[in-house]
């Protein structure tokens, strides 16, 4: 049976590292062509080089999803280079430490602009192209923080709760157009997200959390993405919560 991802075109934000890079490699291995976006061109080009050396096809597009013009231009450039768009994966994300009394508004805006608005900008720009393709898939990467808030990382929890609500809303809106929409909520996964936390002490704590024994790897989440994309079109995984086996905390 032909792999359903062969000849599909995917756009992945935050594709230079972590879950975004792992998803790019996984989709390419299944025959998809991939456009990855992010702010660090050197990291994007390294991922593209790895995909190309493995026989895949990928392009790098430098972009800042927090900027509406840049985010929309990245979608347009991906379509211009690759001819169509079938899959959108919103993986770009950052974190910050602090709550309403301890994190300044610039920190709140940074997290919400990237995690939420970047997702909205990209989905809005991609929608006409998904419709032109006759349907497609949108996968938004959220977090267990989108289910259970953490006062120490309030802006992150706020942004991820909003991503969950946004994703379910557009799932209801677009399902009748053969556009499947899914939110994936990973628990502790070893990525570079701690590097976005400006306070060194809290960054170290976050790094310890995501790299602790039993934490998941970005490739684990990429496999979940492949699972959602390769189901029959009649089946839409709308919400997928993935935790480390050792995480026994309640919802």
From TrEMBL:
GO terms for molecular function: oxidoreductase activity, acting on the CH-OH group of donors, NAD or NADP as acceptor. It holds the Pfam family adh_short. InterPro entries: KR_dom (IPR057326), NAD(P)-bd_dom_sf (IPR036291), Sc_DH/Rdtase_CS (IPR020904), SDR_fam (IPR002347). Keywords: Oxidoreductase. The keyword Cell wall biogenesis/degradation does not apply. Residues 8-191 form the Ketoreductase domain. It comes from the Bacteria. One of its GO terms (cellular component) is membrane. Belongs to the short-chain dehydrogenases/reductases (SDR) family. This is SDR family NAD(P)-dependent oxidoreductase. It comes from Novosphingobium piscinae.
């Amino acid at each position: 049976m032909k792999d359903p991802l062969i000849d599909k075109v995917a756009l992945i934000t935050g594709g230079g590292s972590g879950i975004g890079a792992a998803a790019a490699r996984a989709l390419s291995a299944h025959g998809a062509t991939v456009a990855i976006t992010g702010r660090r061109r050197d990291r994007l080009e390294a991922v593209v080089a790895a995909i190309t050396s493995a026989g895949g096809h990928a392009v790098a597009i430098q972009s800042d999803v927090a900027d509406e013009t840049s985010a929309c231009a990245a979608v347009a450039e991906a379509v211009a280079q690759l001819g169509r768009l079938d899959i959108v994966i919103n993986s770009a994300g950052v974190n910050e430490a602090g709550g309403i009394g301890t994190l300044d508004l610039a920190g709140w805006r940074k997290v919400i602009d990237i995690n939420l608005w970047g997702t909205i900008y990209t989905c809005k720009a991609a929608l006409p192209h998904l419709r032109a393709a006759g349907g497609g898939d949108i996968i938004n990467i959220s977090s267990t923080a989108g289910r259970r808030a953490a006062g120490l990382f309030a802006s992150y929890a706020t942004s991820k709760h909003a991503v969950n609500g946004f994703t379910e809303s557009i799932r209801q809106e677009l399902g009748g157009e053969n556009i499947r929409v899914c939110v994936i909520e990973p628990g502790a996964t070893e990525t570079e997200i701690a590097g976005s936390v400006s306070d060194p002490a809290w960054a170290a704590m976050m790094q310890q959390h995501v790299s602790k024994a039993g934490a998941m790897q970005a490739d684990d989440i990429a496999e979940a993405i492949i699972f959602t994309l390769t189901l029959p079109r009649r089946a839409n995984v709308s919400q997928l919560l993935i935790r480390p086996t050792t995480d026994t905390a309640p919802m």
